[in-house]
TrEMBL record:
<dbReference type="InterPro" id="IPR016032">
    <property type="entry name" value="Sig_transdc_resp-reg_C-effctor"/>
</dbReference>
<dbReference type="InterPro" id="IPR001789">
    <property type="entry name" value="Sig_transdc_resp-reg_receiver"/>
</dbReference>
<keyword id="KW-0597">Phosphoprotein</keyword>
<dbReference type="Pfam" id="PF00196">
    <property type="entry name" value="GerE"/>
</dbReference>
<dbReference type="InterPro" id="IPR000792">
    <property type="entry name" value="Tscrpt_reg_LuxR_C"/>
</dbReference>
<feature type="domain" description="HTH luxR-type">
    <location>
        <begin position="147"/>
        <end position="212"/>
    </location>
</feature>
<feature type="domain" description="Response regulatory">
    <location>
        <begin position="6"/>
        <end position="123"/>
    </location>
</feature>
<dbReference type="Pfam" id="PF00072">
    <property type="entry name" value="Response_reg"/>
</dbReference>
<feature type="modified residue" description="4-aspartylphosphate">
    <location>
        <position position="58"/>
    </location>
</feature>
<dbReference type="InterPro" id="IPR011006">
    <property type="entry name" value="CheY-like_superfamily"/>
</dbReference>
<protein>
    <submittedName>
        <fullName>Response regulator transcription factor</fullName>
    </submittedName>
</protein>
<keyword id="KW-0238">DNA-binding</keyword>
<dbReference type="InterPro" id="IPR058245">
    <property type="entry name" value="NreC/VraR/RcsB-like_REC"/>
</dbReference>
<dbReference type="InterPro" id="IPR051015">
    <property type="entry name" value="EvgA-like"/>
</dbReference>
Length: 223
């Protein structure tokens, strides 16, 4: 039996998109499933389909920069469920993704039947992980966990400012890029540090960039 949940599959590999769409179609109406191949097209779809309730997000999708893609979605669309999909099966990376707001993590080696189970569990309001995975044995830094979770407190404008801080831009440059006054940027920076519980912009930039440093290069098969 299918539900009326509307979903987007965001993955740059057409064969896996097709397989995921096939698995999802057992639980979701086929007409309610959209597909895209990079982060920019995902956000375009979200603008035209604000009723979206579920996203399948490839960890390595172009434009995502590791877990920054996930945190950006969680920041701008906190009510949308996000299922991470990846060839990477590193428990520490999976743990980091879950702490950053994912509701499930599906390795690309997962069978179609188990993908279906994951979809069913998430739609029912629970989280799903591969069997026999002990996340407690692979803890991540508490500071990183708290930082990733606090990103949801930022407004989309503040998130954008933080991303530019992480890229090394000065307040004057950020003001130019956003077409606002430098005083406005300073206000954003103060609010960002307060919401993230940090003392300075350098620390904020370092922690934000760590989200993009997920090591997925060793994964085999689909990227």
């Amino acid at each position: 039996m299918t539900t009326q949940v509307k979903a987007i599959i965001a993955d740059d590999h057409p064969l896996f998109r097709s397989a995921l769409s096939q698995a999802a179609a057992n639980y979701l109406e086929k007409d309610n499933i959209q597909e895209c191949y990079d982060l920019a097209s995902l956000f375009s779809l979200l603008e035209t389909h604000p009723e979206t309730e579920l996203i399948f997000l490839d960890l390595n999708i172009p434009g995502a920069k590791g877990l920054q893609g996930l945190t950006q979605i969680r920041n701008q669309y906190p009510d949308i469920l996000v299922i991470m999909v990846s060839a990477t099966e590193d428990a520490k990376i999976i743990n980091h993704a879950m702490e950053a707001g994912a509701c499930a993590y599906i390795p690309k080696s997962t069978s179609l039947s188990n993908i279906g189970k994951a979809i069913e569990v998430v739609i029912d309001g629970d989280t799903w992980l591969p069997e026999n995975l002990d996340l407690e044995a692979h803890p991540i830094d508490n500071e990183q966990t708290e930082f990733a979770q606090n990103l949801e407190k930022l407004t989309p404008q503040q998130y954008k400012v933080l991303a530019m801080i992480a890229d090394g831009l000065l307040n004057k440059q950020i003001a130019y890029e956003m077409s606002v006054q430098e005083t406005t940027v300073k206000q954003h920076v103060s609010a960002i540090l307060r919401k993230l519980g940090l003392n300075n912009r350098t620390q904020a930039g370092i922690l934000f960039n760590q989200l993009s440093q997920v090591d997925t290069k060793s994964a085999e098969g689909f990227a």
